[in-house]
Design a protein that fits this description.
With 646 residues, the chain is of the alpha+beta class. The chain has five domains: 21-81, Nucleic acid-binding proteins (OB fold (Dihydrolipoamide Acetyltransferase, E2P), Beta Barrel); 86-157, OB fold (Dihydrolipoamide Acetyltransferase, E2P); 180-418 and 481-544, no CATH class; 423-475, no CATH class; 558-644, OB fold (Dihydrolipoamide Acetyltransferase, E2P). Helix content is 29%, strand content 31%.
Length: 646
């Protein structure tokens, strides 16, 4: 009996193959050639080096689970989803062929690119490009193979951190193009002339896209009449026009360190629509009365107007003057009076929000100081000053007013929402707080009033560890088409409309407010549009983080930081180390376990508690301030490794 082409043997093989266990997971590679198939955060299977040659780090695969030398191993069988699809990388030319190295940690091998004479002539070693993976070994191809799509930058271009990051996240790197027709006023409605009022703007000294101007009067009973005028780009951009579609796609002006890519053409955002001083501009205006107890009255108006800002003021100058420092003084007595009244309103609203809503923490913000060639000269730590708070309180009033106006008249818009905790996380918060002798119940903190009370208690307690653990359980903020609460602000509803030059969601709310004013049928935004805006917001934030990480690694490579001791705040505990923030400049660093304690068996990283135990004794926790020195600044992965200074 021959075994060749034996149907019984073939069937037996099929049966054995069918009985072999299969697992699904994500490939995690290592620098030593082997890898692991991670099926969940707690479980992984060894992939030998010979099997790793078939897959890439991050691939989602199905693997056969086998036993070799008394050890479970994963043998890749089927590709579900490749980690690489469209990707960014650096070029290498060799023997008249092009190769590309994906710009991701754990990728150490160049991928062959198709030979194209145009690319061969244009590209040099170290240049950056976008490619698409078109062949994968687990699909039966004998090599990994990529197709070049776009050249990003030459290797010596100082804008590489920005251009590469924007390419990574599929974000635009230039302002939109426009035509003469885009610069023509298209709405010719009757507008109330407010050009005689002493409107002022307060922004950063270099701000060009000025979208809000304010005017204030004190009324007889001790309250205030606040008039907020907002730039009106929708008077120039018709709904559904080419420029409107571009603005929707972009979603936001993308503010990166040292660079911004506007949502609208700069000629619109920084000139024609910008509320520049002494220029007559169309505006959408909210006028609202604030009672002497700080409550926003029901007396709210929205209308179209012409305004003329009388002065462009800066946060630092106004803050200096209020704090009686520096040499700057208001240019006129009337502007001085505006600043004084706005300051009074700000203090009144801060007291009101402290009692009735949620106050913001005055956290440090960090700003890169760059040369004209993109070199980081320094990183400056900045606090929100009183002038920032003046504008913030005025805009909060305006946005609360818009939310109420939309809800009352049409019942929809783009609302900013935050729902505090879901039920499971609320239970976790209550349980955690009890351990610290703070007694709350689940039903209480899931209401807006109860959540605000919890935040006030935490503010008074001023314990950064407890604060960080509670925040870990909070939901993320989002958008909603229908009215909803914003727990993190302590507001029953909130809808921004004060930055239409910079945010498409505010453009939508502008059009809805105008439809009410003009008694027209409003166009309700769709869930699809809402989700597009949310996704674009997420990508912009990731791009800002990635550029910052890149600039930090370039900055901290300087030899003056080699032996420097930094104070750092622990911001997270991971499975194998600590993430911390350098307080001097805001850089994020990672401290591996080996640099915390020499014996890995004696150290426990408790991610849930945010604590580190050594020999069962708690030594470090989230929010602790520790001293560190830099161990390795890795430009290729834009990461910074530090070690504890003992």
């Amino acid at each position: 009996m021959t075994f060749q082409n034996n149907p019984l043997l073939t069937q037996l093989k099929k049966n054995l193959h069918a009985k072999t266990p299969r697992i699904e997971g994500i490939v995690k590679s290592t620098a030593r050639g082997f890898g692991f198939l991670e099926t969940d955060p707690q479980k992984s299977y060894f992939i030998p080096p010979k099997n790793m040659k078939k897959v890439m780090h991050g691939d989602k695969i199905i693997a056969l689970l086998k036993i070799e030398k008394d050890r479970e191993i994963a043998e890749p069988e089927k590709l579900i989803e490749p980690f690489l699809n469209r990707f960014v990388g650096t070029i290498e030319k060799k023997n008249n062929k092009l190769f590309i190295m994906p710009d991701y940690p754990f990728f150490k091998d160049f991928i062959v690119c198709q030979t194209n004479s145009n690319y061969l002539n244009k590209l040099q070693n170290g240049d950056w490009a976008v490619a698409k993976l078109i062949k994968h070994k687990l699909r039966g191809d004998h090599i990994f193979y990529a197709e070049l799509i776009e050249i990003i930058a030459e290797k010596n271009n100082f804008l590489i951190p920005w251009w590469v990051t924007l390419a990574h996240h599929k974000l635009e790197k230039q302002e939109p193009l426009c035509t003469k027709n885009d610069l023509v006023l298209k709405e010719h409605d009757t507008r109330i002339d407010l050009t005689d009022l002493d409107f002022i703007t307060i922004d950063n000294i270099n701000t060009k896209d000025i979208d809000d101007a304010i005017h204030i009067q004190q009324i007889k009973d001790g309250g205030f009449c606040l008039t907020v005028a907002i730039a009106d780009p929708t008077a120039y951009i018709a709904h559904g026009s080419k420029l409107d579609i571009i603005a929707l796609k972009r979603g936001f002006t993308n503010y990166l360190p040292g660079l911004n890519i506007p949502m609208l053409p700069r000629v619109l955002s920084e000139d024609i629509c910008s509320l520049n001083p002494n220029q007559r501009r169309p505006a959408l205006v909210c006028r609202v009365l604030i009672n002497k107890d700080g409550n926003i009255s029901n007396n709210i108006e929205f209308f179209l107007s012409w305004i003329k800002s009388k002065s462009k003021l800066s946060y630092d100058h106004v803050s200096d003057w209020i704090e009686k420092s520096g040499t700057w003084i208001p240019p006129t007595p009337s502007i001085e009076q505006q600043i004084l009244l706005l300051h009074d309103l700000c203090l009144l609203r801060i007291i009101w929000r402290e009692k009735n809503a949620v106050l913001f923490k005055d956290n440090l913000e960090y700003r890169f100081q760059l040369s004209e060639f993109g070199v980081v000269i320094d990183v400056l730590a900045e606090k929100r000053r009183i002038a920032h708070k003046i504008i913030e309180e005025a805009m909060i009033i305006a946005n609360i007013s818009a939310a109420n106006f939309l809800s009352k008249n049409i019942g929809f818009g783009i609302y900013n929402v935050h729902f505090g905790f879901d039920y499971i996380n609320a239970e976790n918060v209550v349980s955690f707080l009890k351990q610290h002798n703070l007694n709350f119940n689940v039903q209480e903190i899931m209401t807006l009033k109860g959540f605000c009370n919890l935040r006030r208690v935490l503010n008074i307690l001023s314990n950064k560890y407890i604060e960080s653990r509670v925040r870990r359980f909070q939901s993320f903020g989002s958008f909603s088409i229908t009215p909803g609460p914003h727990f993190a602000l302590g507001m029953s509803e909130y809808a921004t409309w004060t930055s239409p030059i910079r945010k498409y969601s505010d453009i939508i709310n502008h059009r809805l407010l105008k439809s009410i004013i003009k008694n027209e049928i409003p166009i309700k935004p769709t869930e699809t549009i809402k989700l597009k805006i949310l996704e674009q917001k997420r990508r912009n934030r990731m791009a800002e983080r990635d550029v910052s990480d890149w600039l930090y690694t370039l900055f901290l490579q300087h030899e003056k930081f080699t032996n420097k001791t930094f104070n750092a705040e622990i911001i997270d505990i991971t499975r194998n180390g600590v993430r911390a923030k350098l307080l001097e400049n805001g850089a994020s660093v990672f401290i591996p376990g080996i640099f915390i304690h020499y014996n890995r068996e004696e150290i426990i990283f408790d991610q849930e508690l945010g604590k580190i135990f050594i020999k069962n004794i708690m030594l470090y926790k989230v929010s602790d301030i520790i001293q560190v020195t830099l161990f390795d600044v890795k430009l290729e992965t834009r990461s910074i490794v530090a070690k504890l200074k003992y």
